[in-house]
Amino acid sequence: MKEFLKRKDIEISLKRYGIDALGAMAQGLFCSLLIGTIINTIGTQFHIPFLMQTVATIAGVDYTVGGLATAMSGPAMAVAIGYALKCPPLVLFSMITVGFAANALGGAGGPLAVLFVAILAAEFGKAVSKETKVDILVTPLVTIGVGIFFSWLIAPPLGRAAMWVGNLIMWATELQPFLMGILVSVLVGVALTLPISSAAICAALQLTGLAGGAAVAGCCAQMVGFAVISFKENKWGGLVSQGIGTSMLQMGNIIKNPRVWIAPIVASAITGPIATCVFGLRMNGAPVSSGMGTCGLVGQIGVYTGWVKDVAEGSKAAITAFDWFGLVMISFVLPAVFSLIIHAGVKKLGWVKDGDLKL
């Protein structure tokens, strides 16, 4: 069995499923749901007729250009997961149907359902791939058959479970914005820097609202924090690559000296409750944006698209100067200031020295 799994490149491990597959799922979401949301927002804000009008009507449902991209989130996630799991072509292409089924049956918690179902379908598909003389029939049949079966079996309960956990976190944040602001900010921020996907976690849990705002604060604290405290070692290249790229670049240095992580984590514990209690920062855009921070400014774009949606729905009167002030402070200014102050104290204690943050 071990030889068979090795030959089929089926690796049952936390890294393969919890890091590679989860990270790829987030990329699939970016290329569908997130891009669709941005296209819709651009069309609405700049009054671009082509982006606002219906371009296709399928089964009685009207779709704009952005709507078409959003509708493909399930297939996009599944194909991305299949790519990360190194699926052969016939398995990879079959994942389109698997992703559509899992996302549809998973309901609002579809991303979590897609993750589990896509992994199962991909590994079963890889197991039978090129084992018969009629591979072009057997491999798609097994991949799609397994995918649809597990979509029917586990997607609905997984979707409900994800929604329940997400709703619990959001309810607790509304009830206790200070304590939950700290908890959500720190945990999601840490997940962003670790080699796992904070964006996929937020998407799976459908984390929005005040809790989503705290998540944005935590992610920004990590990215901007590491960017500014390592500026002496990494200069402008490091500032850009970490500030609007990813703080995950520092994982090697964190492993060597975990104390370099103190400043960004403490900064996130401070900015989280400021976001929830002072500015009332809410992420009502795509949930995946809650776990993105300043990466490509996706977190900030997500907050803005949420404002636009709230105004359109009538739940928000208008986008105010205080809204923009809060977003800028939480995203850029406060993470930089707090991280620099805390890091200076850590260096003074001798816990971190020059060169520890060199990329």
Q: From the alpha carbons, calculate the radius of gyration and give it in angstroms.
A: 21 Å
Residue fraction in strands? under 5%
Spatial gap, N to C terminus:
41 Å
The helix tally amounts to 16
Which spans of ≥5 residues are poorly predicted at pLDDT below 50?
none
Q: Spatial order of the strands in the main sheet?
A: 1-2
Please describe the biggest sheet, giving its number of strands, its sense, and whether it closes into a barrel.
2 strands, antiparallel
Percent helix range: over 70%
Tertiary shape: globular
Order of helices and strands: HHHEEHHHHHHHHHHHHH
Residue-averaged pLDDT:
93
- Going by helix content, strand content and strand pairing, the class is mainly alpha
Textual characterization of the structure:
The structure is a single chain. The chain is mainly alpha-helical and 359 residues long. The protein has two domains: 2-161, no CATH class; 176-348, no CATH class. The chain is built from 16 helices and two strands. It has helices at residues 2-7, 14-45, 49-52, 65-71, 73-84, 89-106, 110-128, 135-175, 177-193, 198-205, 209-229, 231-243, 251-256, 262-278, 298-313, 321-348, and strands at residues 56-58, 61-63. The chain has a two-stranded antiparallel sheet. A hairpin with a 2-residue loop joins β1 and β2. α5 crosses α6 and α6 (89-106) packs parallel to α8 (135-175). The radius of gyration is 21 Å and the shape is globular. The model has no long low-confidence stretch (mean pLDDT 93).
List keywords for this structure.
359 residues; mainly alpha; 2 domains; 74% helix; globular
